[in-house]
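Key result, reporting period 2: structure in, sequence out.
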């Protein structure tokens, strides 16, 4: 009897000792998602806005393919003609042979025309007016009233471009844009690179330090705030945007992208969160999660999950790569959706008159 009592005491002490260490992590248990508090660190500005982008470009317009120029010889009847810069860059007027107008300013084109027209007219005085600019354009897509392509006929800021596109799309019920334009995830792409404009600061707070001047082929995209997606990019079998739900986690998101590619470097998966201009990032070891050493991670709308294909060292440089790849991917997809939708052409009144040469 005494031995039985001693055995029971030993078993009780053993159980108490086990309880004191706390429960072990169960990878199969429900509600094991974690937001990894404190693990998201500010990435800082991915890039800085160059000061020169806040200053208008004073260089004169250089003609390009698709531009239309009205040409007239003053004091000569029936010489007014609307001329197109053809796909080969040539412009044809009167009986002259083609002139390589692409790349010329109006002043340069005027001088060339007057020189060549001396073969047909005595002291010809040429007047030029640009009637349509098609060679230099900017994209304005997303939650604006008239998304499309708009001619860049002179210095134009972001606010001016959005204004030409009819302004931000507003709700007919509330009259506000808050639920329609996601300003924290709006972006500008230039030459395939992310330009870190803070659209929320610009359009919500009136921060004019973000109102930069646009360049040819710049791409502005203002997504809908009603869009709730998580983006899985990098070394997965099917990079894609996945519709958000309350239960989406890192594991389910990667499963939605058909899983990791064979050459994925899963020890340093990155999750990018918050605004594109001031993102935060967390580093996650995939193998720790699926082996039960760490909990799965709850994702939030607009998170970017990036699976690298090799080890990386400098997070700042790698963060730039992730943001650039993300905006290029979204821009390409939205450009395809836009199809042939074009903004209304804006007629230009840039002219060169013979009296001033301007």
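The corresponding designed sequence is given below.
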């Amino acid at each position: 009897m005494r031995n039985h009592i001693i055995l029971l005491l030993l078993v009780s002490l053993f159980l108490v000792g086990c309880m004191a260490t706390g429960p072990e992590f169960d990878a199969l248990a429900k509600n094991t998602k974690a937001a990894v508090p404190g693990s998201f660190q500010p990435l800082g500005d991915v890039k800085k806005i160059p000061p020169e982008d806040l200053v208008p470009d004073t260089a004169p317009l250089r003609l390009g393919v698709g531009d239309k120029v009205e040409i007239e010889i003053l004091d000569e009847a029936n010489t007014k003609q609307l001329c197109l810069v053809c796909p080969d860059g040539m412009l044809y007027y009167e009986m002259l042979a083609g002139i390589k107008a692409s790349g010329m300013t109006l002043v340069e084109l005027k001088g060339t025309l007057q020189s060549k027209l001396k073969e047909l007219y005595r002291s010809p005085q040429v007047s030029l007016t640009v009637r349509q600019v098609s060679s230099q354009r900017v994209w304005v897509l997303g939650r604006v009233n008239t998304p499309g392509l708009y001619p860049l006929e002179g210095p134009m800021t972001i606010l001016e471009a959005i204004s030409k596109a009819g302004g931000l799309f507003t709700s007919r019920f509330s009259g506000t844009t808050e639920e329609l334009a996601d300003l924290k995830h709006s972006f500008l792409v230039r030459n395939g690179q992310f330009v870190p404009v803070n659209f929320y600061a610009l359009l919500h707070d009136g921060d004019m330090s973000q109102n930069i001047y646009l360049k040819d082929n710049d791409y502005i995209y203002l997504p809908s705030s009603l869009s709730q997606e998580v983006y899985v990019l990098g070394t997965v079998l099917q990079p894609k945007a996945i519709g958000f739900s309350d239960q989406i986690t890192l594991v389910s998101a990667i499963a939605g992208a058909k899983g990791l590619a064979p050459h994925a470097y899963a020890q340093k998966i990155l999750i990018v969160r918050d605004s594109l201009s001031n993102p935060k990032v967390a580093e996650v070891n995939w193998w720790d999660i699926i082996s039960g050493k760490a909990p799965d991670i709850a994702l939030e709308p607009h998170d970017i999950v990036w699976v690298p294909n090799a080890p990386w060292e400098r997070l700042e440089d790698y963060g730039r790569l992730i943001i650039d790849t993300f905006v290029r991917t979204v821009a390409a997809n939205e450009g395809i959706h836009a199809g042939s939708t074009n903004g209304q052409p804006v007629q230009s009144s840039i002219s060169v008159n013979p009296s001033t040469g301007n």
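The chain has three domains: 51-58+136-226, 68-134, 228-315. The CA atoms of residues 131 and 227 lie 39 Å apart. This case is discussed further under Risks and Mitigation.
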